[in-house]
Amino acid sequence: MVLDYRHIELFGKKIFEKVVVTPPFKNPNPLQDEACLLYVLEGGNNSYSEQEHLIINQDEAGLMKCGNFLYDCIADKDTGNCGLLAIHFYPEVLKKIYEKDLPVFLTKGEKPSFTHNSAVVKSSQPLKNYIDSIAYYLDSPKLFTEDLIILKLKEIILILLETKGSPRILEIIHNLFSPKSVALREVVESHVFSPITIADLALLSNQSLASFKRKFREIYNDSPANYIRNRRLEKAAQMLLSTNEPVSGIAYDCQFNNVAHFSTAFKAKYHQSPAEYRKSQLQN
To answer: What domain range includes position 271?
Structure first.
């Protein structure tokens, strides 16, 4: 449930957004022609891209280049809410505000190779001070003039470029608007054990659900639900033999939210309950 929402625009584009929600709250965040910095004001956030899963804690941010994303809010233990502040980067907006003095990542020169779509920006005093100032202007939008918006947008880019000891952040900054091509198989294999749905996988693959299911069967000769369930059961079977973790813990680790459902699915595949399987295999 959305408790509060505010935003500021520049040249007809949403640049700064602030939202407070009560989880569970999962939302797609496609960034086809933009990039984004998502700062956690309260609670936390799980961010999923085609091949990555970031856990962003309070006072940290996730830097996401153009691509397909999904975010899942984590409630604050005290308030039960999640607060996020987003800063959007559009190539046409940045080119307009920088005019002839374009940053390196907006030029067409040779760019460094890249492997990541997102990165966690750790908490720092400059970043926190910056976010506090944006939150103030979102609460007092009449004070947020166009010139000031432009200055604040340039300021956050400088803060990110000056981030020490994080080559991953610099890599993303220099490839901010270069989409990474990811095959369906790579998306699936990256998230077999992530707590996301088949519809979420379709979104991260930039396909409709029907197209995703059709292409999935062409590749795997199986349905997504059956393939993912079997992979998770296989991992559970391995954990039963290699760890002392209770059956309930293994079920949750393998993304079965209901222990009874896990036991039923496990018995259908292995013809024994999880406890019986562990006992019989360890005795052999």
So the answer is: 224-283
**Spatial distance between the Cα atoms of 196 and 194, rounded to a whole number of angstroms:** 6
For residue 85, tell me if it sits in a domain. yes
Q: What is the pTM of this model?
A: 0.81
Reported as a pLDDT band with limits 50, 70 and 90, residue 180 is: low
pLDDT of 46 over the 60 cut:
yes
User: Looking at 153, 174, 195, which one is the last position of a domain?
Assistant: 174
Contact 64, 81 (CB under 8 A): no
Task: Show the tokens assigned to 80.
Answer: 């039960």
Let me know whether 7 and 146 are in one domain.
yes
Do residues 167 and 69 both lie within one domain? yes
Last residue of a domain, one of 140, 155, 174: 174
How many other CB atoms are there within 10 angstroms of residue 215's CB atom? Answer: 16
Q: Which runs of E-coded beta strand occur in the chain?
A: 2-10, 13-21, 26-28, 35-42, 44-48, 53-57, 61-64, 70-74, 82-89, 118-121
DSSP state of 143: G
* Separation between Cα atoms, residue 84 and residue 40, nearest integer Å: 5
More confident residue, 108 or 42: 42
Q: How many domains does the chain have?
A: 3
User: pLDDT of 187-223, one tens digit each?
Assistant: 999 999 999 999 999 999 989 999 999 999 999 999 9
Shared-domain flag, residues 205 and 246? no
